[in-house]
Amino acid sequence: HLPVTAMGPGVRDWGRLLLTVTAVLTLPMRPPGSWGAQIIGGHEVTPHSRPYMASVKFQGQHNCGGFLLRARWVVSAAHCFSGRDPGTGLVVLGAHALHTVEATQQVFSISAVITHPDYQPTTHTSDICLLQLNSSATLGPAVGLLGLPRRGARPPRAGTRCKVAGWGSVSDFEELPPGLMEAEVRVLELDACNSSWKGQLSPAMLCTHSGDRRRRGFCSADSGGPLVCRNRAYGLVSFSGLWCGDPKTPDVYTQVSAFVTWIWDVIWRGQHGPQPRTTGGRQALSEPQQHRVHH
Ligand SMILES: *[C@@H]1O[C@H](CO)[C@@H](O)[C@H](O)[C@H]1NC(C)=O
Ligand SMILES: *[C@@H]1O[C@H](CO)[C@@H](O)[C@H](O)[C@H]1NC(C)=O
């Protein structure tokens, strides 16, 4: 079982593409649908009914999701930014059909990416980052905030119904969905999920499955998007198996409740602490690990 991050097209996707091609050549044909690379088994949401949803774009292309936590802060997955220059990234808020011109859209550049200091690309541990936008979003009907779990909150119990949304592409060839898609999934017990993943999971993760025989979950380019349970972000899309929605490799999220203190600390420091030095070029500072954008 090979973990595949749910990131959009990019350098790291060549591995996935290669695996897909290899799999096509070596595996028996799968029923249509198991190929789909959008939110799997979901539906298009009412436009702007999830006003906290953010799209992270690189080179004009949707790459990852995220959610708006404060007017100037978006939460996303750390792997979305590994090996990328955040200076080339944009955050789009207030979108429904990303590829069309929408008056509700607000576009921001990214002033800072604060990656969790314990993030490990190989194991996907602590796959979370905070994006500081270049200015504050204007909140309104199409752009709004999503709350975190309370400090010290436990992750939702197994069986809890939650929703995952994203603009993940609708095919392995980077087609976009008609609008924001969403699927209802159920929290899966971490032990069971860990067994499916051959013991590769760490404690600050959260898994979901469809809870029935249908395939439902996330796929390419949904990374960083929130898993919403009881109107709060309890998960961030992190990785899944080669086949999206495959019950053998349940969807894995970053367990947001384990990072609440870190998130508020970063935001507090961003607002009240000394401004990080702006030096030429990007730098990986420690504690917190930061990639500053060269202005
Ligand atoms: C923020 O970035 C966006 C996108 O690059 C740009 O259009 C906007 O003017 C910037 N806002 C400020 C206040 O610099
Ligand atoms: C997953 O299983 C492995 C191997 O048994 C174990 O080392 C690891 O701690 C487990 N992870 C979780 C989150 O329980």
Can you describe this structure?
There is one protein chain. With 295 residues, this protein is mainly beta. The chain folds into 2 domains: 4-8 and 32-45 and 148-257, Beta Barrel (Thrombin, subunit H); 53-145 and 258-292, Thrombin, subunit H. The chain has helices at residues 13-26, 190-196, 260-272, and strands at residues 4-5, 43-44, 53-58, 61-70, 73-76, 89-93, 106-115, 129-133, 161-166, 181-188, 205-209, 226-229, 232-240, 251-255, 284-285, 289-292. The strands form 2 sheets. The protein has a 6-stranded antiparallel barrel with strand order 9-10-11-14-13-12. Strands 3-4-5-8-7-6 form a 6-stranded antiparallel β-barrel. The longest helix has 14 residues, at 13-26. Bound molecules: 2-acetamido-2-deoxy-beta-D-glucopyranose (2 copies). It holds the Pfam family Trypsin. Residues 274-295 are annotated as: Disordered. It comes from Capra hircus.
Let me know the largest β-sheet. Answer: 6 strands, antiparallel, barrel
Uncertain runs: 10-37, 276-295
- Proportion of β residues? 25-35%
**In CATH, what is the homologous superfamily of the largest domain?**
Trypsin-like serine proteases
In helices, the fraction of residues equals 10-25%
Strand segment tally: 16
Distance between the termini: 42 Å
Provide the succession of SSEs: EHEEEEEEEEEHEEEEHEE
Q: Gyration radius, to the nearest Å?
A: 18 Å
Could you give the order of strands across the largest sheet?
9-10-11-14-13-12
Pfam families: Trypsin (PF00089)
Domain Peptidase S1: 39-268
InterPro entries: Peptidase_S1_PA, Peptidase_S1_PA_chymotrypsin, Peptidase_S1A, Trypsin_dom, TRYPSIN_HIS
Region (Disordered): 274-295
